[in-house]
Amino acid sequence: MSSGAPVVRPVDPSGEVLREIPLPPYVTGEDAQFAVRAVVVHAPRRWSGGVICRNDASPHPCRLHRWGRRMLALHGLPPAEIDALVEQGDPSAVPHPYRPGA
């Protein structure tokens, strides 16, 4: 049952495998702001050993970056919009729910 790609499981310093941060049943505007901050502050950074989280040097994407992306997706933003927020680099940017055709 090998897919060929290794599965990276985040591990804290004590050796425990870290679980994903749970999502709320719905995302408020304040939740979305926290999520933008998470994806921007925990953005990828190229390093000699590969791509790491620029905030805590863990393998990218770190738990908070993944949580932020999942929250923003739940808020209605498509991946391209989330990538644009990360690229913009402004942790106080206001994410507006994506509404196609609006």
List keywords for this structure.
two-stranded antiparallel sheet, 3 helices, 8% strand, globular, 35% helix, mainly alpha, 102 residues
Textual characterization of the structure:
- By secondary structure, this protein is mostly helical.
- It has a domain at 29-88.
- The protein is 35% helix and 8% strand.
- It has three helices and two strands, in the order H-E-E-H-H.
- The chain has helices at residues 29-41, 63-75, 79-88; strands spanning 44-47, 50-53.
- Strands 1-2 form a two-stranded antiparallel ribbon.
- The radius of gyration is 15 Å and the shape is globular.
- The model has no long low-confidence stretch (mean pLDDT 84).
What Rg is obtained from the alpha carbons, in whole angstroms? 15 Å
Unreliable residue stretches: none
- What's the end-to-end separation, in Å? 44 Å
Give, in order, the helices and strands: HEEHH
Q: Walk across the major sheet and give the strand order.
A: 1-2
Round the mean pLDDT to the nearest integer and report it.
84
Question: How would you summarize the topology of this molecule?
Answer:
Blueprint: H1 29-41, E1 44-47, E2 50-53, H2 63-75, H3 79-88
Antiparallel strand pairs: 1-2
Compact summary:
This protein is mainly alpha-helical and 102 residues long. The chain contains 3 helices and 2 strands.
